Fold:
Amino acid sequence: MIKKYLPLFTAVSLGFFFVMQSFTSFFDKYAEILRNWVILISVFALMLGVFNLLHKNLKRLKSENGNGKIYSLVIIISFFITVSAGFINWNRTIFNSANYFAGKPELVRKIVAEAISNDPYFSFHPAKEKLTLLISKDIAPYYIPEEKELKESGFTLQQYLSFFNDDSKLDPKLMENSVFRKDAKNIKEFSLRIDNFSQDIAYSVIENTKIRKSVSLYGFSNTAEIRIRTLIKQDLSIRKTDRKQSLTWIFDVFYKPLSTAFFALLAFSIIAIIFKSFRLKNSFATVFVISATIVLLGHISFGKIVADTAEIKELQFSALLDWLLFVPNMSAQRAILISTGLGICFYSLKLLLGIERPYDGEDDGK
Amino acid sequence: MENKPKLEIKPIHLYILLLTVIVVAEIMKIDVTIAPSKLSHQFYEKISSIPPESTVLFSVEYDFSSNTELDPMLEASVKQCMARNIKMIFVSLTPEGPGIIHKVVEKNIKNGASGEKGLIYGKDYVNLGYITGGIIAVESFMADFQMTFPKDFYGHKTSEMEIITLNPDIMNVNSIIDFSSGFIDAIYIPVVYKEFVKGRGLTTKVLAGTTASIVANVYPFVQSKQIDAFLAGLKGAADYELLLKLPEKEHKAVKTMRVQVAVHVLLIALIVLTNVIFFLGKRKK
Amino acid sequence: MNISTDINIWIGAFLTVSVFSILFRDNIFYKFAEALFIGVSAGYFFSLWLYDILIPKLFEPLLRGELIYLVPLFLGLSLFLSFNQKTRWISKIPIAFAVGIYAGVNFIYYLRSYIILQISSNIFGFVVFTETGNIDWATSVNNIIVYVGVVTVLLNFLRTYKSNFFVKNAGNIGMIYIMIALGTAFGYTVMSRMSILIGRIEFLFNKVFGIAL
Structure:
């Protein structure tokens, strides 16, 4: 009894829940949880398929028949190598200049300290260390201002932001040499400048190139650059193993060429099909061939590259193609869409009403 | 005409012919005319009208069956968004997606497409990674990014990212740009995007770039405005590159289009040839 | 021309050529490439499912003590019970779970976007007038063509061997429309397939032999 009706009950009730859910946002929260569960279940289902594949190939490997054994071995070995490559750095930190500083607050703090150490404005500042801490929070890619952090440093947000506008206590001569005071209006701008500066350096270290803008344009000194560069180099040497992106490497070197090459084979089969069957055998075939030919003709045009719509009219075939696509093609496609839509809706309705039960196998449950 | 016993053409001859034409066209660098179509213009203008600092959702759902067409589109639109200072959230419904996104975005940052300001990961853009489940996943992350993607592609927590905390769901997203090779159903996913945002009373625009093989299926949706603008295959990508006025060395689709035109000439010649053979054979009988 | 010295590029080139070698005849290189492709893609997908979805979305919350995630865990694992005859019925529950939700969601989306919106946006005038009051012939004719197309193609799908004279002939007109649609779709498919091949050959030229194109 339960064996028969539990799946049916699950499918029908959830189906109706989601139909109802699309008319009201009242159950959004529960729907969201259920959706995430479905995603997880679909992952398990996909994995089941992979296990099936492995199972089949292991079976073939064990069988007496020697035919194709070596290929089963290739499948299994390449599978396990790829999965373990994913395992090596599943918690990966890809080295790119933009997200390099993510999750490295210590390094960011050091860099900020370096960047402001030569600045006369900060050297006389009473709360230098606390400011370093705050600026480094600001520079971290995931900056969200938090009340708690501000409290720890002893500033209110208002104070923190307006702090640097109060220059009354400082020597104006010193301020002329200050990177911070030169053109940054507030601390946010300044920290963004440090951020760009250090990202640029990180980028140049990682990719082994020159930095994009000169150091003076950022306003910092050359010594600051050298120091920050060493800091990043040190950090990289610690995490050298991370740099080898094994899974990405397999993706780029094996998966991508194989995948594209297999799809490219379709081009060859298409040209064979065209030669074999693009013949004007009857009136329907003629219409088919002619409309396909118009599509091909509509994209042919020799001459200079034109980036102006005014000259479209000169290309006769593309105008014909546009008409073909927007008028007869559109109407036929629309009718096809309506009928597929009807088919799918009826099937879904059958599922919702429990008339069709694909989850019931043919063996039991009857 | 000479009457040979039988002129037999085997598939392998056609394959060699095709390869030869492609190779010759690659070397010869034929000049072609590419006049951006109205639809491509629409696409370009829709992105141009997105105000700076607003957020755009990129949905990448193609595999390597169509990367020659869709990579240039993705790249060009990322370039345009970067230049316009638009924030980008990337999601992917195919396993290949995150890798493709990673490459395209990194390359553009490297080339300085974002200008002097530079981009900050987690603030200006985020690569949320791959999710299974088709439309269920779409519904899920549109309602709550953080719940669907607790971690991004690189393993960082999304709850700590400014771009996600400012855009917890689809409500604040200005436009959705979808690049699809129709792996589920012709153009179902972009249409679902549109339906979803409409259902919530939003005016979010849905722009789609598709592989050529499903272009014909898209037109009913364009007419009914279920898709706001779309780029059609390689030609669309080439149009877009020209509309963006990219420097010539950054032309990817335009380059491929040069070869494509030569291949088209070959195919039309083949269609004519096969029909000539067919009718000659008919007459003999 | 400067030939690449990067081993990664050469692996890619070797694999590409191995796959293309099927065009001549079946051989061990092709079979090797095929097996490698199956293994690597299964492994790559598996890694992403495991490390990008299951671990952050299921196992990490579980380890944090969010016990509600035991439900999807058990539902997912019960799929694996389908191998055993006795426990097979349990594995039907997660399938029914997914089928029910997809049916509910799909029903609404298809109904709205494929049926209602498509029909409603096909409602426009037969005869269209310009601003000055004259008949806009081009648009009017196009509209009529679209109408005829939608109706006749739908009738074509209704055609059975018992159909009356009207449905049969309307269906024939619909068939012409369908052929146009299939023809354009095929033409575009050709474009799409050719561009993959061109992309691959560009890779060989550009990356392997260093010929700037």
Notes: DSSP finds 16 helices and no strands in chain A. Chain A touches chain B through 82 residues (CB under 8 Å). Residues 197 and 217 of chain A are 10 Å apart (CA to CA).
